[in-house]
Amino acid sequence: xxxxxxxxxxxxxxxxxxxxxxxxxxxxxxxxxxxxxxxxxxxxxxxxxxxxxxxxxxxxxxxxxxxxxxxxxxxxxxxxxxxxxxxxxxxxxxxxxxxxxxxxxxxxxxxxxxxxxxxxxxxxxxxxxxxxxxxxxxxxxxxxxxxxxxxxxxxxxxxxxxxxxxxxxxxxxxxxxxxxxxxxxxxxxxxxxxxxxxxxxxxxxxxxxxxxxxxxxxxxxxxxxxxxxxxxxxxxxxxxxxxxxxxxxxxxxxxxxxxxxxxxxxxxxxxxxxxxxxxxxxxxxxxxxxxxxxxxxxxxxxxxxxxxxxxxxxxxxxxxxxxxxxxxxxxxxxxxxxxxxxxxxxxxxxxxxxxxxxxxxxxxxxxxxxxxxxxxxxxxxxxxxxxxxxxxxxxxxxxxxxxxxxxxxxxxxxxxxxxxxxxxxxxxxxxxxxxxxxxxx
Length: 441
Ligand SMILES: Cc1ncc(COP(=O)(O)O)c(C=O)c1O
Description:
Elements: H1 37-44, E1 50-51, H2 64-82, H3 92-103, E2 114-118, H4 119-131, E3 137-142, H5 146-154, E4 158-165, E5 168-169, H6 171-183, E6 188-193, H7 207-220, E7 223-227, E8 251-256, E9 267-271, H8 274-288, H9 293-305, H10 308-333, E10 339-340, E11 348-352, H11 359-368, E12 371-372, E13 374-375, E14 388-392, H12 398-422
Parallel strand pairs: 1-12, 3-4, 3-6, 6-7, 7-8
Antiparallel strand pairs: 2-9, 4-5, 8-9, 10-11, 11-14, 13-14
Helix pairs in contact: 1-11, 2-9, 4-5, 4-8, 6-7, 10-12
The site of pyridoxal-5'-phosphate has 15 residues, from helix 4.
């Protein structure tokens, strides 16, 4: 039967490579596209490639035998609870323990205001779901966390970036942007910020600016979403005081056990003012009914029986050594025209290339030279950021980090020579949100 004979009843699109339902998707799905750099990262995960791209915590440093015993014990002793549905808000005991963790950052809160989520990523999703209609404005640092930008895009938010320097978000830029948007009749729904050990910026909002940011947002009636998965992973000093510590009504705080324990448990949380917390629980129930009781109880058991503060110290020392390896290698090997941030915690360094170099265009060459990074374009909602790249130091051993920087410096030097020979190409705006995938977030 030919297509003419079946009167168009067979879908026009057949076979495995073409999507028969392409015209049936909701408008919000059109923004969900796999990044073209994903394929490249499949190559980059080969062992011969030094990946300065991934944001994966170094779970090898965990006492895995102990975790195994704890999990097995949990099933044997409390299996009927651990393997049952739980509540939408999360295990009450774990919520109390979460309050103890947050106290380390000056937060004084009760378990009733905590919602346990599937990683802090789900908290981001739920917050966006309850606040954002298509076209609503969200403010975020430029650059910002790729996973948050993906969520904002999925809900068709309009992200407006706020300038950031080596002391974090610039308060004047925040105030001016809010004023300009409100004057233009585009009120802001919330400010999304990562004040401490920023991903990807590697910078931390200083204490004076914290107060300024709180004041500006309070005056404008703008809710702050404080995303803080790295706050306890500082190298030089005691944890910073969280924004939420000084504004219980103005801030929704997002926390996570992904970096202080392990991301595989997928346990994070939101601490929210009471009314918002109620909506979050309803949104949580509509998304997944309840979080996994099993992983919540496992994390609770870990916190109750293991020296978790010591484990965080172990992680901090390990990541500090790797940060030093990365910064020392950059100082020693990079061409002087390249600059970068100097993080005092977290996982990431943000590097800026000389004029005329485009990190996304360089990536294939770098991978061929067996080193990978994440191009800066993934961290802006408008695809700008081509002169930047994120370098992570959380996963490779220090020697591998040094070798990775040696390879990368060689690639950048070659690119600069090409630029000098053939003239300055301008960096391009690439457009859209690049979502390179969970292990690279
Ligand atoms: C800034 C930031 N927020 C949220 C997340 C998500 O973490 P989780 O594993 O808790 O979902 C990450 C993970 O890399 C992150 O860097």
